[in-house]
Hints:
The chain is mainly β and 448 residues long. The chain has helices spanning 162-165, 242-246, and strands at 4-6, 9-11, 21-26, 93-103, 106-111, 117-121, 125-129, 153-158, 167-175, 181-191, 197-206, 224-226, 232-235, 257-261, 283-286, 291-296, 303-307, 314-319, 356-358, 364-369, 382-386, 391-398, 401-408, 419-424, 430-434, 439-446.
Amino acid sequence: MRRTMTVGVLALVIGSAAGLATTSLVAGQAAPAAGPQGGPPGAPPGAPRGGGGFIPPGGGPEEGLNTKPANAPNQKPAVAGQTRAPERKANVAFDVVTVAEGLVSPWGLAFLPDGRMLVTEKPGQLRIVTADGKLSPPVSGLPMVDARTQGGLLDVALDPAFQKNRLIYWSYSEPHGDAGNNTAVARGTLVDGAAPKVENVQVIYHQVPTFKQENAQLHFGSRLVFGRDGTLFITQGERSDTEGRMQAQKLNVLLGKVARINPDGSIPKDNPFVGKEGVRPEIWSFGHRNVQAAALNPATGELWEVEHGTRGGDEVNISRKGKDYGWPTIAYGIEYAGGQITGGIQQQAGMEQPIYYWDPNIAPSGMAFYTGALFPAWRNSLFIGGLASTNLVRLTLDGDKVVGEERLLQDLKPTRERIRDVRQGPEGALYLLTDNAKGRVLKLVPKK
């Protein structure tokens, strides 16, 4: 096994194969609460940094649904049903199968055409995982990553023409030495075999500016989603500190933006700000905080994304061409240390409202629209991983509206885990990554 040096981290990844362990669960059962976790250096006690690995004040595990008071109880939603949707249980009985374990903080998952999985590990490794849980050696040829705090190797995606060109794409925190770091996207040709590797690696996207401030370990995003037209959406964060968050509103930088590029890194001619002086042509939408979940709505082809709030204000948005999603001018919730965010307003003309938000937080990461045949009662649901809430959130949709919510895996055995990614498998099972030092690939299948 090869040792991979990352900036600030020397990780020797454990690559053990796992037997398939099965736990039977029924949606809606209660579970014991998870224990507290520690935050990064310099953070307020218990304060989150958009999925940094610890429970936010006024968030974290809860029993049932919406059992905790809001952090900002006096804030009113812009429209009815925008938060705290009624509980809608599908009453689906399912088994939880452990497909693989021994992954170190797995972050992103993509299915190969033969049913095997590409799984990223945050310290900088990419693995191929078979259906029976065997882990490949680390895929060689990837660039170095800055794996401090929230940084590292993040999402992974296959080119729409993968079966012909063998191209894969990955997002990561790109180190620049003393200059800082940024979110970047690279692509390369996957060469399969006993010692898998990527060749002809090209970095096709660099978030600008390079970020060096105190919180240069935070808010990288970043999910990769191919649109129906073959363009690539890249979700990003605004890098967390006060200066960075304000840049989410500035169109000459890429912090706090959803970018859209062609697969070779060039700019689509129909991007909203192409040809406008002083504006980055990569921008698709702006005013985002830290987007760690994204997927195409199969009914409409639109990009849906979920982003982290502070204490309250985790949001579900539909990222639309040229639109401003408000951060940090408008926001639900309060600051980590208490007090209002910016001017303390939640609505403003010209800024988009989330279609749904949570207060307290779930700390969202990873999402999938379910279209499979294995679970008819779940069809057309939106599933979102909960890091702080340590559960799987299922939203019932009516068009673009959230009309119901259900919390699953509150009784996960042997203990509740942070859910980092959610994907539908080719056979219709639901696959999850659990974010810890002995990370697992879990599969939800109908109860036998």
